[in-house]
Amino acid sequence: EPEVTQTPSHQVTQMGQEVILRCVPISNHLYFYWYRQILGQKVEFLVSFYNNEISEKSEIFDDQFSVERPDGSNFTLKIRSTKLEDSAMYFCASSVGQGVTKNIQYFGAGTRLSVL
Amino acid sequence: SQQGEEDPQALSIQEGENATMNCSYKTSINNLQWYRQNSGRGLVHLILIRSNEREKHSGRLRVTLDTSKKSSSLLITASRAADTASYFCAGGSSYKLIFGSGTRLLVRP
Predict the structure, then answer these.
(1) Average pLDDT value over all residues in chain B
(2) Cβ within 8 Å of residue B3, ≥6 positions away
(3) With contacts defined as CB-CB under 8 Å, which chain B residues touch A10?
């Protein structure tokens, strides 16, 4: 069964460093998303992406964050200058965006980001 | 918060019993979805109910939606130890899901 894959599974970085989290969405999906989950807290929406542009973003998604679809398969989240509070599990998701199942989002296993 | 407060926060039941989790939301939604998360893992979609539906079934899952009360419930019948996980409701609109805080379900063998 097709799945969303995320790499790396765990990323450790120093405060102030840039990190890029990578995702390969399901191949025929049109909508892509990033969410984060701080340990013990709820899953929070960061950004959605469609047709090579951001559809919607939350107030968490400030100028330190950016997303890109550099080729036909990858979808990346970049954090420009990491802060301690960016430590969280980051989930990528995708949805087909049309038809009966258009709203169902399929999630990757996540990247655990630890900022030291 | 914008969305989805589940109750109870934690639920412990015996295998074979039914588990009911409730969710309330605040904003307008097109649909409401339930997801499961095993410890430290990704979210797995369980069921989606549209805003014009009142009840939906999928296997051992039954979900209800009351848009007048902005609430939903998830019933898992005949629970199994493998159902142990956290369960989240999520309000769906055009381009995002807004998740609740989740219910941690423990099914004791």
Answers:
(1) 91
(2) B25, B26, B27, B90, B91, B98, B99, B100
(3) none
Nearest to A43 among B31, B44, B88 (CB): B88
Instruction: Identify all chain A residues contacting B100, using CB atoms and an 8 Å cutoff.
Output: 42
In tens, the pLDDT along A14-41 reads: 999 999 999 999 998 999 999 999 988 8
B1, B41, B98: residue with CB nearest A109: B41
Integer Cα distance of A52 and B98 in angstroms: 22
Q: Provide the total of helices (H) and of strands (E) in chain A, helices listed first.
A: 0, 11
Do residues B21 and B85 touch, judged by C-beta distance below 8 A?
no
Which residues are within 8 A (CB) of B1 and not within 5 positions of it... i.e. 6 or more apart? Answer: A42, B26, B101
